[in-house]
Design goal:
Layout (H helix, E strand, L loop, with lengths): L2 H17 L12 E3 L8 E3 H13 L3 E13 L4 E11 L5 E10 L5
Antiparallel strand pairs: 1-2, 3-4, 4-5
Length: 109
């Protein structure tokens, strides 16, 4: 990955924190997400898949959640973001505070 790829990932994360929406224009049409934190752990593909994962499947578990600033790491063929998430379970008194990792491969050009 190049510094440019790290900056793209960082801008996308900052956009998400500010607006609650992914920076759709920076996501490839065939973007994929694999969530290992939800029960079915399936793959989500394309913008529609990302929207389903983020706003329906993952979000449905939480009555509220927030994420903090991330540390972005150039890890060779991918960019890794490490960030803090705080969430309260929907219909429960339980809460979560955990460090999460998100990795991406950038296709530039």
């Amino acid at each position: 990955m190049s510094q440019k790829d790290v900056e793209i990932a960082q801008r996308g994360w900052e956009h998400f924190l500010a607006t609650g929406e992914p920076a759709w224009d920076t996501l490839h049409a065939e973007v994929e997400a694999r969530d290992h934190d939800i029960f079915d752990g399936r793959e989500y593909r394309g913008h529609a898949g990302i929207q389903q994962w983020l706003f329906e499947d993952w979000a449905s578990a939480w009555s509220e959640w927030s994420a903090g600033p991330a540390e972005f790491i150039d890890a060779g063929d991918q960019v890794i973001a490490v960030f803090q998430v705080k969430a309260r379970g929907r219909g429960a008194a339980s809460s979560l505070s955990a460090k999460m990792r998100w990795s991406s491969r950038c296709a530039t050009g």
